[in-house]
Design a protein that fits this description.
about 50% helix; rod-shaped; four-stranded antiparallel sheet
Length: about 100
């Protein structure tokens, strides 16, 4: 009978330790995800990967497709260099610009 009580107590202790470990791991992971998300929203991720951040359109020019998709963006391989010009009748040189939109 003593052995059963001892095994039960050990099982409970191990369960509690596992639950605490899962909680701590999840908390740390959530913090990292939040920090990464903030770096993408502020343009830090873009600039850290040799891109040009355009905050008013939440775009990163000249970033690779892999980095764009990794950061949760939508990659456009050949966006117009005049895509953000409000004057739609303005003359525009046809140049492809790789862009990551968020």
């Amino acid at each position: 009978m003593k052995n059963k009580k001892l095994y039960f107590a050990i099982s409970i202790a191990i369960s509690i330790i596992l639950l605490i470990s899962i909680f701590v791991t999840f908390s740390l992971f959530s913090k990292e995800v939040l920090e990464f998300s903030q770096s993408v929203e502020s343009g830090e991720f873009c600039e850290a990967n040799a891109g040009k951040w355009i905050p008013e359109f939440k775009e990163c020019e000249q970033i690779s497709k892999e980095k764009c998709e990794y950061s949760g963006g939508i990659f456009q391989e050949c966006a117009s260099s005049c895509r953000n010009n409000p004057d739609k009748d303005a003359m525009c040189i046809t140049v492809c610009v790789p862009v990551c939109k968020y």
